[in-house]
Amino acid sequence: MSWIASLFRSTLMIKAVMAVTGLMLFGFVLGHMLGNLKLFAGPDDLNTYAEFLREVGYPALPHEGLLWIARLGLLAAVGLHIWSAWRLTVINRSARPTGYAVTPTWQKSTYASRTMRWSGVIVSFFIVYHLLHFTTGHVHSDFIPGDVYHNVVSGFSQPLIAGVYIVANLLLGMHLYHGLWSLFQSLGASGPRMDRFRHQFAVAFSALIVLGNLSFPISVLAGFVH
Questions:
Q1: Radius of gyration of the chain (CA)
Q2: In whole angstroms, what is the distance from residue 175 CA to residue 112 CA?
């Protein structure tokens, strides 16, 4: 079993875990945001879509079986993503135990990269809160099982709750931006031309997700969705 332990201690393997789980999470946030756009189509469309997700795989699997497998897989991906980030941090600090007296120009970082660890931890807690809020209803004061449209509108009608979602999605945007930028670099896609492309792609993807997600609480607070 020693070779397995060595494999999971290798920087290459840890970066691969971070890249794969990162791609899984990028795919999820995109699909999740696109599906939630049905909020603007009205209660029937959003609730029908939610019911479809609950029934996928039935009767081969129990009711909501595949959906809960996906949720647990998401949480596992988040856990592995955090673990790989922590391991890389430990390895990098061990390789360079003393800091630079002056930070070289090429190592200057963006605000997103400097807050990467904290934004990742906060977003992880937010995912758990989001499940308890809109999935199980444990922290929702007016939760109606199966009525997703009502739960979303009543939840976001509370300014404090809407504010939590707005702040969390701004942090998610910073995390996505730096994550995509680093992902391309880890895969060896770097250079003047590629750096310009990955910067533009990271900005565009992050902005798409953030603006889409922010449109839900803001539309409810503004009264466009009621």
A1: 20
A2: 6
